[in-house]
Design a protein that fits this description.
Its main location: membrane. With about 240 residues, this protein is mostly helical. About 85% of the residues lie in helices and about 0% in strands. α1 packs parallel to α9 and α3 runs parallel beside α7. The protein is globular and about 60 Å long.
């Protein structure tokens, strides 16, 4: 059981530092809205991960293989991110011009809608079909190594989620330290950068849909890395 936990922790850390839209929006939420708002957003993201885990575990492999490799889903998810990013960029630009003379306190301490943050975290994670591919790959690789034991599988995935959350909390606390340096212009620039990042990832996902063979090569490299890391951790484990 300890070996299962030790094998899961690096995967949780890897997931926490995966450079995707959720990574940047989490940092933005921490900087602009504070620790509690960022945690609520992150819990929504985690609910999305748990949903993908359950879907990948209980659905048939053939169905999931078709879903995760369906280019139309990458195109749809990419277009949603792209439109959302463009809409956010335009909206924030208009708001900045309208509030150009508004002071920092008014801009940075507005009340957070925790329900909308939770839903935003869930949806932002859910539209990235690559996350489903990640969890399906983990299940395919590690479930046989866990002897298909439901208790071991439960502990393994719970350890991934907990380590992922703990790393995210550290990221949130570090990002929160930048809060006191904010000015209205800095707030605007942070939001604009995040919008541009969402647009870039939207374009990237869409391209993945149009060029599925390139995506498959990248997925194979990730899967090989996971296998190599797991074999190494087994050799160096003394428990």
């Amino acid at each position: 059981m300890i070996q299962d936990i030790l094998s899961a922790i690096p995967l949780g850390a890897l997931l926490a530092f995966t450079i995707g839209p959720v990574f940047f929006v989490l940092l933005e939420t921490s900087i602009l809205k504070g620790f509690r708002a960022a945690i609520i957003f992150d819990l929504g993201v985690i609910l999305g991960d748990i949903s993908f885990i359950l879907l990948a575990y209980f659905a048939t492999n053939n169905l999931l293989e078709k879903i995760k490799d369906d280019p139309r889903l990458f195109i749809a998810g990419g277009l949603i991110l792209l439109v959302y990013g463009i809409f956010s960029y335009i909206k924030q630009k208009k708001e900045y011009k309208r509030n150009i003379n508004t002071d920092l306190i008014h801009l940075s301490t507005s009340k957070s809608n925790y329900l909308s943050l939770f839903v935003k975290g869930f949806l932002l994670n859910a539209i990235n079909i690559g996350v489903l591919g990640f969890w399906l790959g983990i299940i395919i690789v590690f479930t046989p190594r866990l002897d298909f034991d439901q208790n071991r599988i439960g502990v393994f995935f719970l350890s991934i989620i907990i380590s992922y959350l703990l790393v995210d909390i550290i990221k949130i606390l570090i990002a929160k330290q930048l809060r006191h340096k904010l000015t209205p212009k800095n707030i605007y620039q942070v939001k604009q950068v995040i919008s541009i990042i969402l647009i870039v990832f939207g374009v990237f996902l869409t391209i993945q849909g149009f060029f599925p063979k390139a995506k498959q090569k990248l997925s194979n490299k990730v899967e090989n890395w996971v296998l190599l890391h797991h074999d190494t951790s087994k050799k160096t484990n003394f428990f």
